[in-house]
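Build the 3D complex.
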Amino acid sequence: MIELLDVYKIYDEGENEVRALDGISFRISEGEFVAIVGKSGSGKSTCMNIIGALDVPTRGTYRLNGTDVSELSDNELAVIRNKTLGFVFQQYNLISKSNIYENVELPLIYQGIPAQKRKEMVISSLDRVGLADRLHHMPNQLSGGQQQRVSIARALAANPPVILADEPTGALDSKTGKDVMKFLMKLNEEGKTIILITHDNGIAECAKRIIRLHDGKIISDQPNVPKLENLQ
Amino acid sequence: MNITQSLKLALKSIIGNKMRSFLTMLGVIIGIASVITLVSVVQGFSDDMVSSFDSMGTNNITVSLSGRGGNMNIKPEEMLTIADENRDLFSSATPNVTIMGATVKYGSNNISSSVYGGNEEYAKIKDYAVANGRFISYIDTVNRNYVCVIGTYVANELFGTGDPIGKMLKINGSAYTVVGILEEEGDSTETSTDNMVIIPYSVASRLARNARISSYTFVATAAEKIEPAKAVIEEFLYDVFEDEDAYNVSNLSQLVDTIEDLMGTLALVLAGIAAISLLVGGIGIMNIMLVSVTERTREIGIRKAIGGKRRDILSQFVIEAIITSGIGGVIGIIVGAILSTILAKLLGVSGTVSVSAVILSFSVSVLIGILFGYFPAAKAAKLNPIDALRHD
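Done.
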C-alpha cells in the first residue's frame, strides 16, 4: 500500500546541495510493522515526512494506495493526512489551549463527521488508550506518557489504516516508553500498518521489519523477530 | 468542514486564549475609544464656539452717528423708516440709548444700574426674553410712556420676594411703572447683565438729556443681505450729512470670516487627531495580531498535519479576528462614549458623541484587525506543515 520509487529529497540544489534522501525505494504492505532506523542526519525524518504526506519528494514517485502523492494538491494532501494516516510525534504536538477531548476531536471535525458520531468516536478512541476519564483535562495537566497516549488516541480517532510514529518514546522514560511500544504492537496485531521512525535500535527491535538508513541511502532492509526485552 | 464548525473552533480558541483575545481587543478598544473621545470633545468645543458666536448677532449692523460739526439732525423715527421701507433687507431695527450708573430706587431700596433705551424690537435683537409681564411696546415709545422692564438682579434687590409688576420705581428721580421682568441672563449679580433696566428709547433720550440718538442696531434678514443693507443705510446717511465721516456703519462680518477660518483650522486639527489616534491604535492591533499568529504557527502546523485544509485554518483565523475585533470595537464605542461624556463634563463643553467618529474608527480598527488576522494566518497556512511544526 506504500510504495517509494527512487525517491530523492534534495535541499539547496546546486553546489552546496544536501541530499537528505538519495534515491531510496521500498514497499510496505498492509499490516506490516516497519521500523526506519538511522542516526540523526541519516534522512529518516525526511523519509517519514514524505510517507506522511507532510512534504513532497524532489524527484521520484511516492504511491499511497496506488495514488501518486507527489502530484496531489495541498488540499488533497490534507485529506490523505486526515483519513489515511495517523501521526504520533516525539513532542506529542497537542494543542495546549484545548482540552484532551477537543484535541482528539480535531481530525474528526476536519473530516466533517457530525457531532454525535464524533463524540462516540472520541470517547472510544480515548478509551482504547485508557484516558476516557480525563476528557476535560488540559494537556499540561497530564504526564508525558499520558500526553503521548492522547496523541495516539488522536491518531486513532479517524480510524486510519496507517500509523506513523516519529520517535514516539523519545521524550519518555523507559517504562512509559515500553508501554507505548506495547500499545503500538497491539495495534499492529489488530491490523494497523505501523511505521516507526527511530534512532534507537532497542526500540526498532519491536518491529517486524527494520529498514536502516545512512546518508540518505538504504543500507539494509531485513525482517525482524519482535523483541521487547531489548528496550532500555 | 462547514462554517458552523469554523465558528465553533474560533470561539473555542478565543475562550481558550483569554489573555491573547483580551490583548487583541485592547488594541481595538484603545484605537476606537481614543478617536471617539478626542473627536467628540473637540467637536463639542467647536459647536459651542459656533453657537456662542451665533448668539452674538452676526447679522447685526451697527450704525453710529457723530454728525457734522456737532449737528446730528436726524430723528430716530427717520432712521427706523430705512428698515420699514426695505423689509426684504431688514428684519428689525432699534435705536440704542445707554445710560450707565443710573440710580434706581424703590421705597428705601436703591441700587446703581445700567439703563438702556430701545423700541419694541430691542429684546429680540439683543436676544433677551421676558420671564414675566410684557416688553416695551410700540405705543410706549410713541406715547413716551414711563414704563420699564427690569433684570432679575434689579427685581431681587428692590422688590425682594414681592411681585414688581405694576409697581413704580424711580430712575434718577423720575417714576416708571414696571411692566415686565427679563429672564435670568447671567447669575443675577450686580456685575452681570441682570443688573439692567430697559425703557422706551423716546423716554431714554430725555433721561440722557440728549434729544438725538447716535446709535442704532439694524438686523439683516440673512447673512448675504448684510452688504446691500449696509449700502442702503450708507446711501441714506450720505444724503443727510453729505459727509462720510459723519457716520459709521459696521457689522461683525469680519469677525464671521475670522470665525470661519478658525473653524476650518479646528476641523483640520480634528482630522489630524483622528488620523494619529487611528494610526497608533492600528499599529497596536497590527502588532498583537502579528505576534499572536506567529506564536500560533506551530498550532497551524499541528492542525495541518492532522488534516486541516488551508481554508479550514484560514476561516477559523478570520472568524477569530472578526469576533475579537468586533467585540473589541463595540466595547471601544461604549468606552469612548463614556469617556467623552465624562471629559466633556470636566472641560465644560457639550460632548455629543460624534457618529462619524464612531463609524470611521470602528470600521478602520476592525478592518485592520481582520486584515492583520488574515494575512499572517494566510502566510502560515501556506507553509509546509513540517516547517510550521518546527517553528518555535
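Chain B has two domains: 3-53+258-390, 60-251.
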